[in-house]
Amino acid sequence: MNFRTPGRLYAEVIGDPIAHSKSPLIHGFWLAALGLDADYRAARVAPADLSAYFADRRADPDWRGCNVTIPHKLAALDHVEDRGDVRATIGAINLAMRAEDGALIGANTDAGGFYAPIAGFDFSGKPVVVIGAGGAARAVLFALAKMDVGPVTVLNRTPLKGAALLSTFGLKGRALPLTAALPPAALLVNAGALGMTGQPSLDLDLSPLPDDAVVYDLVYAPLETDLLAQANDRGLETVDGLEMLVAQAALAFELLFGVEPPRERDDELRELLTA
Ligand code: NAP
Q: What is the DSSP-derived secondary structure letter of residue 192?
């Protein structure tokens, strides 16, 4: 098996499926804007091929690393060195990088990417609601613990998974089924799959939220989910999934290519991503 096209520096995003990924557009936009002679592309890697993929790339000095998406975020940890203690903290990686000596280093930029768009708000001590208890929720809860928020209510189809994550991240709060009424919260985050294209929409009554609440939906396809439309109708502050997507990609870009991406061109990038 040979996934390689040698010749110039490159990075990629791996997953299965992968055709839907917006990462090549984002990184490609930044590489072109900076005039860097490097490539960023998508590679479909089936779970059974993950070992062969990493063995191949480890030997390729042109390969800077890869973003890792569904279904490899947990499994990829077994193929990298965990210098940042990611396994014991967030528990999943979304980035593997090749060091000069060929070592592979795992990292996670999802937590930082989640935090960046809300860095200007102060949620310390305030109640938060998180919907979902999968991989994205892990990064969100990790970040919330660092932000020193108040009690966290996790609403999830499988509440036990929510309870386990609260305990993992040392957060005070409770886990309830998705059908539970929404408690008042300063920040409501949808980190679950509902609302994505092809999934039922998230059916929530937002009336318990105060007027200064922030509603943050990690789903980016569609960009304006029913949840965000409802929050906008209420006049609440909203953050969409593209903001996190671009913010986590920016952290990854700097780690992969050693330069900051031109974030002053975010409006242009957003237009490209929503075209
Ligand atoms: P995941 O690990 O597969 O977790 C999926 C979550 O959705 C779980 O909580 C699961 O509940 C719930 N769920 C799935 N199908 C459901 C259904 N039919 N009814 C009710 N709940 C359901 O996926 P993920 O990686 O966490 O991704 C979750 C969402 O976040 C996706 O929309 C993804 O695109 C988005 N995301 C966005 C970014 C970004 O940068 N904006 C980054 C990462 C992820 P159970 O626990 O009960 O199975």
A: S
